[in-house]
From TrEMBL:
One of its GO terms (molecular function) is cytokinin dehydrogenase activity. Its EC number is 1.5.99.12. InterPro entries: Cytok_DH_C_sf (IPR016170), Cytokinin_DH_FAD/cytokin-bd (IPR015345), FAD-bd_PCMH (IPR016166), FAD-bd_PCMH-like_sf (IPR036318), FAD-bd_PCMH_sub1 (IPR016167), FAD-bd_PCMH_sub2 (IPR016169), FAD-linked_Oxase-like_C (IPR016164), FAD-linked_Oxidoreductases_BP (IPR050432). This is cytokinin dehydrogenase. Belongs to the oxygen-dependent FAD-linked oxidoreductase family.
């Protein structure tokens, strides 16, 4: 079998593309002893692109292992080649080719199944790394009345994928990102070892893999913390014309004690116009709501701000009780008359709200369009300058999609894990979720990418303290700046758990000969 893979790699690991039929034959022959299903054709084409739609890189094969042992065999075989790399691909929702392996092997993580085993007494669930979060939600809530504590806004993502980055949403201010809400992992390292790790067992791998961008191992199982699930959600949006009012209120809510604030706090920036995608119509929470622009001062800036909060409650809570709790929490917020919008919906419906957007976008033919997103963490100290330079200037006409903006707390993130953060206790997520619709006029994909670069250059020029979230750089120097004084630790973990740099080549951090270059 080793002779087969060496022949396969030797004949295919070249600049020119192999003949598809011969590549298929070799792949089948090489992997027959692994009991791993291999896919070519359409699956290879799918694995050569991602949600971003701006990077394309064709792999040699897409592999569908059935368990962690199969994943380990794939990695051990890849290690016999001087060039072959392996990428774990969940739902392909990366935006800069992070889940790709140019002329390498792509592992379809969903083939591991969506195994979810709940221990209701211990309040945790052991979940396959290839399970989608929306499956975790339905299983835990539907069968046990329990739910994970921290989410992402979009749940069509794999557990292993979000844990390899951070996993954030409106609950992260209270419970930390998803990486702070797991107590145990099963990880297949680049050495081909299957290791169970936690804060007490193989702890360096545990801390490294969480937020580690797939560089140290492939997460095949995670033990996720659970809490009692509510039944209903009161969902509220409040509009601000002044950035200082918006940030003051948002920071006030996220720094209150848990239990004395809302269960969810986010926010976004929108254009002060009637643009149906970027402007006023994007604010009301239901199709019957309306935004009255007459309540906005004619001297207001080109962009406005919306604070978005939610309160969880049970079916047995009376409407008056919920109203009282909401109004108590709203005390002190600078809410202007007529600028508050609210609705009620079920807990699962609230968490799956982006699923409806996805279905509508697919029906309209824009879900598959390019999405040159840009995600940043910006220090509280510089968020005002960011607003002035970026939102009020570069992005005053919007991005053709949501511009999320909300505060997070550094104390909720364990510094032993791999995620790089800006300085200070409070920092902001800035997520520019561009949609490049083929039916609308506006910037081309290329122009959007150029504008993203302009934003980053402006941040650097103005001394704004920021870190990329879901980072992507094309040079080692870029990664060194990203990790700062944690770069040495990151390299040491790589040398220990994936010394041949087989894993996650799409991140473009390490090459196969990195320790000799």
């Amino acid at each position: 079998m080793i002779a087969y893979i060496e022949r396969f790699v030797h004949e295919n690991d070249v600049d020119s593309s192999p003949d598809p039929d011969s590549a298929a034959d070799y792949t089948s022959e090489v992997l027959s002893d692994l009991r791993v299903a291999a896919a070519i054709g359409g699956a290879i084409s799918d694995a050569g692109k991602d949600f971003g739609g701006i990077q394309f890189s064709k792999p040699l094969a897409v592999l569908r292992p059935s368990d962690a042992a199969d994943v380990a065999k794939i990695l051990r075989l890849a290690a016999r080649s001087p060039h072959l790399t392996v990428a774990a691909r969940g739902n392909g929702h990366s935006v800069n080719g992070q889940s790709m392996a140019h002329r390498g092997l792509v592992i379809d993580m969903k083939s591991l199944g969506c195994g979810i085993h709940v221990d209701a007494a211990a309040m945790h669930a052991d979940v396959s790394g290839g399970a989608l979060w929306d499956d975790v939600l339905r299983h835990c809530v539907g069968n046990y009345g329990l739910a994970p504590r921290s989410w992402t806004d979009y749940l069509g993502l794999t557990v292993g994928g979000t844990l390899s980055n951070a996993g954030i949403s409106g609950q992260a201010f209270a419970h930390g990102p998803q990486t702070e809400n797991v107590t145990e992992l099963e990880v297949v390292t680049g050495n081909g070892d299957v290791l169970v790790c936690s804060t007490r067992q193989n702890s360096e791998l545990f801390f490294g893999a969480l937020g580690g961008l797939g560089q140290f191992g492939i997460i095949t199982r995670a033990r996720v913390l659970l809490q009692p699930a509510p039944d209903m959600v009161r969902w509220i949006r409040v509009v601000y014309t002044e950035f200082s009012d918006f940030t003051r209120d948002a920071e006030s809510l996220v720094t209150r004690p848990v239990g004395d604030t809302f269960d969810y706090v986010e926010g976004f920036v929108f254009v002060n116009s009637d643009d149906p995608v970027n402007g006023w119509p994007s604010v009301p929470l239901d199709r019957y709501g309306s935004f009255d622009p007459a309540r906005i001062s004619c001297s207001a800036s080109p962009v406005l701000y919306c604070l978005e909060v939610a309160l969880h409650y049970k079916n047995e809570d009376s409407p008056s009780t919920v109203d009282t709790r909401v109004e108590r929490l709203m005390v002190g917020l600078r809410v202007k008359e007529g600028m508050r919008f609210e609705t009620e919906l079920g807990y699962m419906e609230f968490l799956l709200r982006v699923k409806q957007v996805e279905e509508e976008a697919k029906a309209n033919g824009i879900w598959g369009a390019p999405h040159p997103w840009l995600n940043l963490f910006v220090s509280k100290n510089d968020i005002g300058e960011f607003d002035r330079v970026v939102f009020k200037n570069i992005l005053k006409h919007g991005v053709g999609g949501p511009m999320l903006l909300y505060p997070l707390l550094r104390s909720k993130w364990d510094s032993r894990k791999s995620v790089a953060l800006p300085e200070g206790e409070i920092f902001y997520l800035v997520a520019l979720l561009r949609f490049c619709s083929p039916y609308q006029t506006g910037l081309s994909v290329h122009q959007m990418v150029v504008q993203n670069q302009e934003i980053l250059q402006s941040c650097t020029k103005n001394g704004i303290d920021y870190k990329l979230y879901l980072p992507h750089y094309n040079s080692v120097e870029g990664w060194k700046r990203h990790f700062g004084n944690r770069w040495t630790r990151f390299q040491e973990r790589k040398a220990r758990f994936d010394p041949m740099a087989i894993l996650a080549p799409g991140q473009k951090i390490f090459s196969r000969n990195w320790q000799h270059s």
